Every structure is written in structure tokens, then in C-alpha cells.
Amino acid sequence: MEVKFCSSCGAGMETREVDGTLRRACTKCSFVHWGNYSIGVGALVVKEDKMLLVRRAQDPGKGYWTNPGGYIEQLEPIEETIVREVREECGVESTIKGIVALRDQPRSIHNLYVAFEMDYVGGEPTPDGVEVDAAGFFGMEEMEAMNVAPFTKWLVDVALRGKSDGLTVDGNPIVPLNGYGLFRA
Ligand SMILES: [Zn+2]
Fold first, then answer.
1. Taking the model in full, what pTM does it have?
2. 24: domain range?
3. The domain that contains 133 carries what CATH number?
4. How far apart are CA 27 and CA 12, in angstroms?
5. Are 179 and 113 a contacting pair, CB within 8 Å?
6. What are the residue boundaries of the Nudix hydrolase domain, all occurrences included (predicted)?
7. How far is the CA of 44 from the centre of ligand 1 (A)?
8. In angstroms, what is the span from residue 12 Cα to ligand 1's centroid?
9. What is the structure's pLDDT at 163?
10. Do 44 and 10 lie in a common domain?
11. Based on the domain organization, do 20 and 100 belong to the same domain?
């Protein structure tokens, strides 16, 4: 998927060296195609050793229980995005406590997922009826009988069972998660 036309001025693009790397760059203006990236955020809202989970009402992952989350917006600060996503999906108010994990997926659209540990502030979990059709706080034992998404299982383990000192690679995750760079923070 080579970029053919400049998204700034519409002129043709060429491949040339920019800062020591061959990149697609505009033949007429200063535009450089640096790549395609996306950043996801996830919330691990803990209340009395129970985790806030929502059940996905849409694909991808329809029917799976996951932690609330979404993608950052162009001009919205990341700390506002995560609080908004939790509120919109299930009506719970929360504040950021820290970052507990990162997931890196270098692929056609390079995705970085930032997992936040959040403090519960208030609100009864109520599904929005669009993105999610169920919501609630659940303990580890309850989750055993639920259809929890594999990546969410890993995040719950990180948040409830302990983290690392600093950023460490998890090369042997508790569930198979092939192709992910997983980091406990
Ligand atoms: Zn251009």
C-alpha cells in the first residue's frame, strides 16, 4: 500500500531518504508520509477487588466481555479520552490512577494500546445499549464462568495480581496472545 499522492497538496509522491530512512515524500511540498498509526486506550476500573467489565454488542469481539476503552481522538487529551470512554460505555465515573500495561502491534496500521488503572468514583454500571449490552463489576472467580476476551484476561491479571517494577516485557503471558508486544508497567 504505497502512498501515491500527497495528502497536503495533491502532487505525486516519491520514495527518497528522509532522516536516514527511505520514505514516501511529496515531490512539490514538504509533506512526508511517516506511517499509519493508531492509539487505543483501555480502563481497568477496580472497586473492592472487582473489575469493571462490559459485554461487546458489536464486532469485533461481539459477545465477549472486555474492559471499557476506545481510540484516542486527534485533538482530545488522552486522559480525557479514557474517562469519557468509561462514562459513555457504561455510565461509571472514574479517575486515572496509573498506567499498568502497554500492548504493541506493529502491522499495517501500527497500534499501541495503553492500559490505565482507574479509581472508581461513582455511578452504577449501565450499558449504553449500542457499543455494549451488559456491564458490571466482577471478581476473578466470577470471570472464570464468563466469556472474557483473552487480552482482557491478561489485563485483569496485570491489574489485580500484580505489576512489574518499571516496564518489562511479558514474553510468557497467562493466555496465548500471538503477535503482541506485551509490557507490564
Ligand atoms: Zn505535497
1. 0.86
2. 1-34
3. 3.90.79.10
4. 6
5. no
6. 36-161
7. 42
8. 7
9. 63
10. no
11. no
Measured in angstroms, how far is the CA atom of residue 17 from the centroid of ligand 1? Answer: 16
With H, G, I as helix, E, B as strand and everything else as coil, classify residue 50.
strand
Distance 140 CA to ligand 1 centre (A): 53
Q: Is residue 174 part of a domain?
A: no
Q: For residue 4, how far is its CA from the centre of ligand 1 (angstroms)?
A: 11
Q: Domain check: are 27 and 43 in the same one? A: no
Evaluate whether 135 touches 90 at the Cβ level (below 8 Å).
Answer: yes
pLDDT classification of 185: cutoffs 50, 70, 90 = confident
Q: How far is the CA of 2 from the centre of ligand 1 (A)?
A: 15
List the grid coordinates of 43. Answer: 480502563
Q: Residue 176: inside a domain, yes or no?
A: no
Kind and range of the H or E run holding 156: helix 150-161
User: Ligand 1 centre and the CA of 13: distance in Å?
Assistant: 8
Number of folded domains that form the chain:
2
Q: Which residues have a Cβ under 8 Å from the Cβ of 128 and sit 6 or more positions away?
A: 88, 89, 90, 91
